Amino acid sequence: MNKIVIIGGHGRVGMLLSRLLVEEGWQVTSVIRTPDQYDDVAAAGAEPLVLDVEMADADSLVAALAGHEAVVWSAGAGGGNPARTYAVDRDAAIRSMDAAEQAGVRRYLMVSYLGAGPDHGIDPSNSFFPYAEAKADADENLRNTSLDWTILAPGALTDGPPSGTITTAPDRAHRQTNRGNVARVAAAVLATPATIHRTIEFTDGAMPIAEAIGGLTSTAGA
Predict the structure, then answer these.
(1) Where would I find the H helices in 104-200?
(2) 222 has a pLDDT exceeding 70
(3) pLDDT digits over 150-193, tens only?
(4) Are 110 and 93 a contacting pair, CB within 8 Å?
(5) How far apart are CA 40 and CA 44, in angstroms?
(6) How far apart are CA 198 and CA 108, in angstroms?
(7) How much is the pLDDT for 220?
């Protein structure tokens, strides 16, 4: 049985992904920040692991990841506090990458956002700036690891029933991305080796997810 750990397992994408992977036969460990999130993730079929990644040291992260074949980073500070945003979305994310390498976990899937990167264009006075900077640094660090990484870059997240269809050639005018579609893309990517070393930009669209992801070609450093 494939074993995977989802960091940020109580988030909306993490919960949706847990259910999908359990249905596909994965054994899911769901990393959560507080014990009061335990019952929710257990109900999704995952094994809860209480670990505050903002405060966790390297050894604790290595121990949490050991024995798994893949890790998904779907955690986030949630904005509002720049110091905590850098601590979680950049520093803790990078520690998790180092821990994955030390624990021998090869596959690493990062949930980022459409437009992330050093040229994100967000003004420093904008409250989104710390998040944009943190994600740019974390994504770039991941690209420079030895891991079999994939970065997902969905557009603005929405709720509601997922369409199951996306586009991997998004335009600026149509950037909404259903969280259920993000979870489905993550599951499809984990089953598609050709997505290794890819940054996949996508939004809701017209192509079935399996077809869209299956049509991608692996390009190292993309």
Answers:
(1) 129-143, 179-190
(2) no
(3) 999 999 999 999 999 999 999 878 899 999 999 999 999 999 99
(4) yes
(5) 7
(6) 11
(7) 43
Superfamily name with CATH number, domain 3-214: NAD(P)-binding Rossmann-like Domain (3.40.50.720)
CA–CA distance, 169 with 181 (Å, rounded to integer): 15
Q: How many CB atoms lie within 10 A of CB 124?
A: 8
pTM recorded for the entire structure: 0.95
The domain limits of the chain are: 3-214
Calpha distance 160→195 (Å, rounded)? 27
Long-range contacts of 80-88 (CB under 8 A, 24+ apart): 80/127, 82/130, 84/54, 85/130, 85/131, 85/134, 86/130, 86/133, 86/134, 87/54, 88/53, 88/54, 88/134
Adjacency order of strands within the sheet including 107-111: 47-50, 27-32, 3-7, 70-73, 107-111, 148-154, 198-204, 165-167, 207-208
